[in-house]
Amino acid sequence: MPVSKELLEYQRVDGTLRKIEQEIASSEERKKYLQARKVMKTALDKLDALDRHAADLIRLRDELSVRIREMSKGLDEYEDIDELLEGGADVGFYKKNAQALLEKLRTVKAELAKLLGEIDSVAAEYKKLMEQGKQANKVYKENKEKAEKIEASHSGEIKEIKAKLAEIAKSIAPKVLEYYTNKRQEGIFPVVVQLNDWMCVCGVELPLLHRSELAGGNMIECEHCRRLIYKA
Ligand SMILES: [Zn+2]
């Protein structure tokens, strides 16, 4: 693939397009809305996790409530203790049982209280995250709109440059242009560079072995940065 002045001109004009693209990509508004999008995503993920956690807690709460109801019912039976005693039952045995049950009930009730506290803090966290998400969504919308306006303000210029590029492209071999375009899409720029003392712009020297391949303005790929290099 020989280098040509059309290809170099194409690259020069393409450079002005790239500059505009970079300007658009690096606008504060764009940074802000991308950041806000990240915050929104994190908040949503956390809300998801909280949802699952809350469902677990509520199931536990219901289980504990049932246990407490059952235990209370168990204790009610001891209301008839006088009758039982009259029937000659062992006072010590019933008292011990009733006390043990009361003790258990107290423990379960404390467990429930702790759980309810946890449910409250999950609810508070949920509210906070919702607020955060809402705020981020506002920032996202505002800045996305602004970023789009900035982009739109360049559209005329971009169109002009692209038309110019299309015109120059007519004088470039399709295979060479495709090669160039692929590199450019990979983020390589400039794509075509002139060797300086057998040295590429990336700082790597072209091995002796390949130097003859550059005869007649032929371009080869730098093994290090994969740019197209040529010798003037
Ligand atoms: Zn290189």
Question: What would you say about this model in short?
Answer:
By secondary structure, the protein is mostly helical. It contains 7 helices and 3 strands.
Number of strands: 3
What is the third-level CATH name, the topology? Helix Hairpins
Query: So what's the overall shape?
Result: elongated
In which order are the strands of the major sheet placed?
1-3-2
Q: In percent, how much strand structure appears in the residues?
A: under 5%
Bound molecules: zinc ion
Along the chain, the helix and strand elements come as HHHHHHEHEE
Alpha-carbon Rg, integer: 38 Å
CATH architecture: Orthogonal Bundle
Largest sheet: 3 strands, mixed
Please bin the fraction of helical residues. Answer: over 70%
CATH C-level name = Mainly Alpha
Structural features, described:
- The protein has 232 residues and is mainly α.
- It contains seven helices and three strands; from the N terminus they run H-H-H-H-H-H-E-H-E-E.
- The protein has helices spanning 5-25, 28-76, 81-86, 91-153, 155-169, 174-185, 208-211; strands at residues 192-194, 220-221, 228-230.
- A three-stranded mixed sheet has the order 1-3-2, covered by helices on one side.
- 9% of the residues are buried.
- The protein binds zinc ion (ZN).
- Residues 200, 202, 204, 222, 224-225, 227 line the site of zinc ion (ZN).
- Zinc ion binds next to loops.
